[in-house]
Amino acid sequence: MNMMHIHRSLVTAVLLASASCHTAPPPVAPQVTITPGTSNLLTDAERGAGWQLLFDGTTGAGWRGYRQTALPAGWQVRDGALTRVGPPGGDIITNEQFKNFELALEWKIAPGGNSGIFYRASEDTDAIYWNAPEMQVLDDARHPDGQSRLTAAGAAYDLYPSPAGIVKPANEWNAVRLVVNGNHVEQWLNGVKVVEYEFGSPDFQAKVKDSKFALHPNFGRNTAGHIGLQDHGDVVAFRNIKIRVLP
Q1: What local confidence, expressed as pLDDT, does residue 230 receive?
Q2: How far is it, in rounded angstroms, from Cα 57 to Cα 39?
Q3: In 3D, which of 115, 113, 141 has the Cα closest to residue 129?
């Protein structure tokens, strides 16, 4: 081998080594098992890890309308999913409240649809979004909100953007993992961490000030609250809704 070949081989080796050092795979969420045909059930491993179902797959038990005592008639169980099928609807919340938790669920939305997942929601404001942050549920391809990453699927709505190319098309199931622990929040979509932030941080406060939530002094201040599902007037379904309380 002549010196020119040796030189080229060394350069190639250095470039490959550099690429391996600086290219890292995207973060992947710890797995919450969902086996086909076992929707709305917990595995023995999940029970052992402290997971509990928030939806039994058959009834709306454990859920009610925001600032209401019962589940609105527009929310029904269809094909094992808690589904917003039409009016009379409205946002719904869990009966229980949670402080630190890991939430997992799947959602599927109609073409052009819009919905959301609220967390640490209270009922001391006229609208749930006046106090509770929202993980956006959206058909990015057809809804106008999909034109901005701040309001696209997976975003902390109007606060923190989500990357493109993660959400699945309308009428396909998407997997969510949401971690809320103290001031720390992580939003995962289809195995990818799409949003991470800290409640009360200077960055969070600045983003709230520049958002539509600036007019609502209670926004993002609850240290515990309900899990909520948004009625934005579109057909949307949720299943495998499960939660694990954190210390």
Answers
A1: 98
A2: 8
A3: 115
Please name the amino acid found at residue 77.
V
In the chain, DSSP finds a helix count (H) and a strand count (E) of: 3, 13
Give the closest residue to 194 by CA, choosing from 143, 159, 154, 142: 154
Which residues in the chain belong to E strands, given as ranges? 51-53, 63-65, 75-78, 81-84, 92-94, 101-109, 114-121, 134-138, 174-181, 184-189, 192-198, 226-229, 236-245
Neighbours of 132 (CB within 10 A): 28
Global confidence as pTM: 0.85
Q: Judge contact between 189 and 154, C-beta under 8 A.
A: yes
State the pLDDT at residue 113. 98
* Angstrom distance (rounded) from CA 216 to CA 228: 18
Enumerate residue ranges in the chain where pLDDT < 50: 1-37
Residue at 47: amino acid letter: R
- Residues 228, 132 contacting (CB under 8 angstroms): yes
- Given this model, what pLDDT does residue 91 score? 98
Other C-beta atoms within 10 Å of 61: how many?
12
